[in-house]
Amino acid sequence: MSHHREARPVTAPQRLSSLDFIRGIAVIGILFANVVGFGQSITAYMWPGAFLTPHGEAADWLWVAQFVLVDGKMRGLFSLLFGAGLVLMAEKAGEDGRGGLIGLQLRRLGWLLVFGLAHFYFLWRGDILVLYALMGMGALLFIDWPRRNLLVLGTLLYTLGMVINMAIMATPFLIAETSLGAGAAMAETRAELVAAAQAEIAGDQAETVILTTGTYADFVANNLTKHLWEPFVGALLYLFETLPLIMIGMALYRYGLFSGQLKSTRQWRWGWAGIVLGSLVTLAIGLWIKETGLTYWGTLAAFMAFSHLPRLPVIVGLAALLALASPRCQGWLARRVRAAGQMAFSNYLGTSMVMLLVFHPWAGGLWGKLTRPELYLVALGGCVLMLAWSQPWLKRFRFGPLEWLWRCLTYGRVFPLRRTR
Questions:
Q1: Cα separation of 81 and 246, whole Å?
Q2: Helix axes 344-359, 372-396, angle to 10 degrees
Q3: Using CA atoms in the order 265, 327, 387, 92, what is the torsion angle rounded to 10 degrees?
Q4: What is the pLDDT of residues 296-333, one digit of tens each?
Q5: pLDDT value of position 101
Q6: Which residues contact 37 (CB under 8 A, 6 or more apart)?
Q7: What is the mean pLDDT of residues 347-376?
Q8: In the predicted model, is pLDDT for residue 26 greater than 70?
Q9: Rounded to whole angstroms, how far apart are CA atoms 402 and 405?
Q10: Rounded to two decimals, what is the model's pTM?
């Protein structure tokens, strides 16, 4: 007798409300980080010197605030949730045999890769979907591991990432912009690093023409020629951040962090400890880099190297506290946040579409014209838009538009979209 069951997606009763709540917070928060890269050059995301508008003392302090409160934390939450989602799908998909289930997951991730590449080349080069698709495929190798092994290996790989990033990103800062590189022995290396920074600045200036006077076709052509392999290079750059966090998210899901199976007092205590301690270290790094003048290599080192390790307890702490807060948050705003999280895929890509219309020269034409505080106001408007449309949409339809398309492509059949009365 055959016990094969048709592969089926996770249904509404099987959804974890806490995952949608945390995902909603993350998709809102990540816009405040990304808006700088939407409205100024990608380099300005980390280095304020790339701003085409004045970046005074107030804006410098806002850089510190974003560095401590937002940067890397929202992406980290997404990574944890992505790992949890892989395990949730493995538990609920209903495939008969591991081969079929892995095949289903690979199809899902393969389509995510397609969406991510389209996002990168046609909407915005700050895409993270390619990263999640590739790292998700790697994480499938560990999906049957015990939760303790996942947690230990994920933490070890994340720590290894700090060592690698310190070598790659902190060393240039120490040589090019501190007294450690002032000696004659370092003169040639220092000159090369200064030239590399100038080359990046020159590249930004070339693209400024496209993003202030060019057409949409110019924008796409530039992405397909000058940045063709960048999505895959970026995936390698974030390999030892994203893959370990996905593995940690898989472990935390199995430990019951998102479903209330852990002792709540302990989860509160460890959550707050992680956030406070990690944020204090990150604040110290931000103040130090600000004191050095927010230099090119200094800000890159702060983002990629120095803040790598203290970011981990903050990310896990946020996930722990938000998972505990979710059942207690039942007001109108919390319901809208959950709806935004349930439609995080549509909201993430939809945000890029909206920002393209706001900033590109053939549309709103605001690229390179807004200061950091003004960009945050644009982000606030984008968040209001997400909260405004997600819940009404889900009252009429079962899924967000892109969630529905992704689901249909993954399972190879058309699911009903409109809710039946």
A1: 7
A2: 140
A3: 100
A4: 999 999 999 999 999 999 999 999 999 999 999 899 99
A5: 80
A6: 44, 45, 124, 125, 126
A7: 97
A8: yes
A9: 5
A10: 0.93
Q: 338 pLDDT exceeds 70?
A: yes
For 254-302, give the secondary structure using H, E and C.
HHCCCCCCCCHHHHHHHHHHHHHHHHHHHHHHHHHHHHCCCCHHHHHHH
DSSP 310-341: HHHHHHHHHHHHHHHHGGG--SHHHHHHHHHH
d(CA 110, CA 305): 30
Q: Which two tokens stand for residue 344?
A: 């995080």
Are 16 and 338 in contact by the 8 Å Cβ rule? The answer is no
Bridge partner residues of 397 (DSSP): 418
Nearest to 251 by CA among 152, 121, 334, 382: 152
Helix (H, G, I), strand (E, B) or coil at 163: helix
Give the Cβ contact number of residue 232 at 10 Å.
13
Given a contact cutoff of 8 angstroms between Cβ atoms, the answer to whether 99 and 214 are in contact is no
Q: What is the dihedral of CA 255, 258, 264, 268, to 10 degrees?
A: 110
Crossing angle for the helix pair 230-237 and 98-122, nearest 10 degrees?
Answer: 120
The one-letter amino acid at 265: T
The label of the residue with tokens 């606030």 reads 380
pLDDT tens, position by position, 273-283: 999 999 999 99
